[in-house]
Design brief:
This protein has 358 residues and is of the alpha/beta class. The chain has 12 helices and 13 strands. Strand 8, helix 6 and strand 9 form a beta-alpha-beta unit. It is globular and about 55 Å long. The protein binds flavin mononucleotide (FMN). The site of flavin mononucleotide has 28 residues, from strand 4, strand 6, strand 11 and helix 10.
């Protein structure tokens, strides 16, 4: 039994938010450490001009304020995504607003983009300077904003020189109206504003980070087709599928927290989010790479995401249940899988079973 398994019962007696804060402090202080994670050329991929040492990333929401990007990378992640960051600090929704559903390895959250705003995160990212490692910046809009697209443009301008990549998050279920940016016309308008901001920022800083878009899993086939069409015509470099779901699978029925409002993440999201991922792969083909997120708690899950169409994979809730060894365990599992199946490179798996998932 590892250290995390020993301390997990004690951590789970704490409410989720203090437990999360404790884990951030553990990383900041250097107390949380893991054995070195192997490097393997068969896991290295280049996407949008960035070279990923392995395909497993930390999803947005864990390190909202860019407190531990390098410590997260040191756990063995091939990349990390800080945020969602909004221009102004905001406290989010009233507590309690995060709920563990332990029996299902799931979480429901309605945090509502609690974060310290651009300025503080900017200072932290400036302090890490030009250290290596891929650190994406996930940007969003303030709840009180009268102009959501302008908030995304502000994010681009603020972090242009520091972000390895941007993610425009239009899929949080906890900011009223945000998901309406996924509609064809609204999305087109948003992307126009984002890429105008990119062009303006580039005039003073020749760095040009790629922009990814993060979508919800709660989409009808027509909406998938509409988003895919806009994405294909756009300058977006990749699509992240998916955020948390508003849906509640029948298996959660009767659970004390099963009906809490908010976005569901973790194991019950694996299947629906992978199905939507495969649908996007079908609609987009190989024109734009996909990043698969939702319910990944093992190497097997990561392999399923790639077979369904993902080039890279992200996770968050898996960390809550499996602990800080998870990224390393998944990387080791991927290497074992390549050895056992004689697969030459991880990219050979991408989209190999899309049809099975659709
Ligand atoms: C507590 C919590 C907070 C989150 N906050 C954000 C966020 O700020 N921005 C974002 O794009 N996604 C956020 N997410 C969604 C995750 O990045 C991810 O898309 C989702 O949880 C599915 O992956 P998972 O099942 O591995 O957690 C959050 C998820 C959780 C559980």
């Amino acid at each position: 039994m590892g250290l995390f398994e020993l301390v997990r019962p004690a951590i789970f007696t704490m409410a989720p938010e203090p437990a999360h804060e404790l884990s951030l402090k553990g990383l900041e202080s250097g107390v949380v450490r893991v054995p070195p994670v192997p490097q393997d050329n068969r896991l290295v991929q280049t996407l949008a001009g960035l070279t990923f040492q392995n395909p497993i990333g930390l999803a947005a929401g864990y390190d909202k304020d860019a407190r531990v990007p390098d410590e997260a990378l040191a756990l063995g992640f091939g990349f990390t995504e800080v945020g969602t960051l909004t221009p102004l600090p905001q406290t989010g929704n009233p507590r309690p607003r995060v709920f563990r559903i332990v029996e299902h390895k799931a979480v429901i959250n309605r945090l509502g983009f609690n974060n310290g705003g651009h300025e503080k995160a900017l200072e932290r990212l400036k302090r890490r300077g030009g250290q290596s490692g891929i650190v994406g910046v996930n940007i969003g809009a303030n709840k009180s904003s009268k102009d959501f697209p302008a908030d995304y443009a502000a994010g681009i301008k603020a972090f242009h020189g520091l972000a390895s990549y941007f993610t425009a998050n239009i899929s949080s279920p906890n900011t009223p109206g945000l998901r309406s940016l996924q509609g064809g016309q609204a999305l087109e308008k948003l992307l126009e504003i984002i890429f105008t901001a990119m062009d303006e920022a580039q005039e003073t800083d020749c760095h040009s980070p790629p922009v990814f878009l993060k979508v919800a899993p709660d989409l009808e086939d027509g909406e998938v087709a509409e988003i895919a069409e806009v994405v294909c015509r756009s300058r977006l470099a990749a699509l992240i599928v998916s955020n948390t779901t508003l849906d509640r699978p029948g298996t959660l029925q009767g659970h004390v927290h099963g009906e809490e409002a908010g976005g569901l993440s973790g194991a019950p999201l694996m299947e629906p989010s992978t199905r939507i991922l495969a649908k996007f792969r079908n609609a987009i083909g190989t024109a734009k790479p996909l990043i698969g997120v939702g319910g990944v708690t093992s190497a097997k899950d990561a392999i399923h995401k790639m077979e369904a169409g993902a080039t890279l994979v992200q996770l968050y809730t898996g960390l809550v249940y499996k602990g800080p060894h998870l990224p390393g365990d998944i990387v080791r599992g991927l290497i074992r899988h390549l050895d056992e199946t004689g697969t030459k490179h991880i990219s050979d798996m991408t989209g190999s079973k899309t049809a099975d998932w659709v």
